[in-house]
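ugh ok fine here u go
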Amino acid sequence: MSGEPRLGYRKIYRKKGLTECHRYKQIKFNGSEDKMQKYTTLMNTYGQQVGIDFDFHGTVANTFDAHRLIQHYQDELGAEVADEIVNSLYTQYFTQRAHPSAPETLVKAAAAAGVDEAKAEAFVSDVSEGMQETKMLLREQANNGIDSVSVLQFGTVLVSIKNRHPDISVP
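structure:
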């Protein structure tokens, strides 16, 4: 990949994106309706146990702008605000079909975390603000072998929740 990190998802996930259902069915499950049904049933069962009502008809798209937003407000206002932004983004994406990097999704997430809406709108609309810093951080993580969100860092120890190129297996 010419030294460039994956920014969000593979290059096919541009800003416009694909529906999540289509992505999983075609890319993860090789077009199998049966495997897709098993997957959604399993995930909904897990989700209901913890109060999450998954909706698999949202859009899968490049999440760079969401990472830029999170990084900016983590630096400016701290980890607690960043956590609230992430919680709102996840809720909007996984349960409300929100596009993961649409300006309205990002502004709503920032506002849910207590960020002044006008300031959030100004930041989101200035796509150059924080871009270089976020790209640098993503490159640094890619150099550490991280290409997905599911990696935790404890001091200098990295813990990967799933493998580098995860494959969701459904019996």
